Amino acid sequence: MSVWNPLRLLGLAGMSLLRDETSVISILEYLPTELFPPLFILAFYGRHSEALKAMVQAWPFVRLPLGGLMQTPHRGTLRAVLDGVDVLVAQQGHPRRCKLRVLDLRHTGQDFWRKWCGDGAHGYSSTLMAPVAEHRSRAEQSLAPVVVFIELHLKERTMDRFLTYLIRWVEERKASVHLCCKKLKILSMPMENIMKVLSRVQLDCIQEVQVNCTWHLSTLATFAPLLGQMNKVQRFLLSHIHVSALEEQEQQHVVQITSQFLRLHHLRDLCMESPSFLEGCLDEMLRCLTTPLDNLAITHCLLSDSDLSHLSQCPNISQLKGLDLSGITLTYSSPELLPVLLEKVAATLQELYLEQCGIMDSHLETILQPLSHCSQLMFFSLRGNLISMAVMEKLLRHTSGLPSLSQELYPVPQESYSSQRILQPGRLAQCRAELFEILRVLGRPRIIWISSSPCLHCGDNTFSHPQPIIYR
User: Fold this and answer.
1) 205, 226, 255, 333: least surrounded by Cβ within 10 Å?
2) CB 362 within 8 A of CB 333
3) Is pLDDT at 279 greater than 80 in this prediction?
4) What does the CA dihedral 226, 227, 231, 234 come to, rounded to 10 degrees?
5) pTM of the model
């Protein structure tokens, strides 16, 4: 049964009861636990503010997943719930029945409502329904702050009314309410507003940070100390940071930024798109990593030979499962650097992206041997590079023994193009037939995908839709 349609008889009884909110409030102490969720839904969608306020004070579960009911936040119903939390935290001791410690405003919790209001009502989650630990006294429970979880997507120049109201409410109750979020996403917002919002958030709750802004390096340096306080961050994504020539002041900004990684003791995934400020000083960031990474992406920027050398020597990349160097021109780098890097990660690497790296035959041949040692490799993309048919055959032979390799994306062989780099359909068909024959001779069932770049219909920086070559 749908989460929005409790059993019909129960729904009719609940609606009848909610016509007199005073009656609802008077029976909450005696209401069976399993009736709280369906009655709460009716009160929420019926905007029965007084009933909502009272039900929050008597909520018999640790967590109230309110966000699972809010398609669009309604200020009146939210205010009623927060008023209920106010009464709760103001009391010396919580009501005997109430176990509420977490108000969850994220778009999660649909399973909770579905299980309690549909056919699976008795198969509820032990996490959502867990009582407060037995060993904690009621005094300790009443002193512990209520935690409010939200999703923070800062993407407007000004804060929306919902976020503004919530921030103000938390600010007035900072001793008794903690505002937390697991994932912080910043797309566009003045730094002043970002600082205001984050000053009210428990920064050590944040586990993922995504910054996709056209910031100057100085702006990122202003944000960096806040990042350092997010010491539980496991995943950090950064893109589109604008930087001019690295003068002395800019170098100071780089130090301010990279030094914060010393405080990120749980960092596992690091993704940096167009981090032009790292050219020539990647080692400063690598030295500040304190834990082994699972995934590393540094894309669409320039890296020097010394950067690549430091990367291959960094002890915290030796357990990488994913490596993405797409858009980094490797044509002019020393040919031994990439093979050394791949040997470093060969034992654990599962995904490798080397798209649009300017790789040609001579470069690819240097990595064939270390590539054949990547026994865990499952995904490999080499799109956007210029490879001949002869070297493509060598590549397929060297990777044919990789037992887990199941997704392979390769460029159209260079023989498929005219001297003006125009794709010739007839030549492409011939190359496809030759590639199929290579797969047949190798004798292992396999699917490879090839695509041209640039795409004739989409522009210089996109790939055509990949076409499979299947040998079964």
Assistant:
1) 255
2) no
3) yes
4) 150
5) 0.86
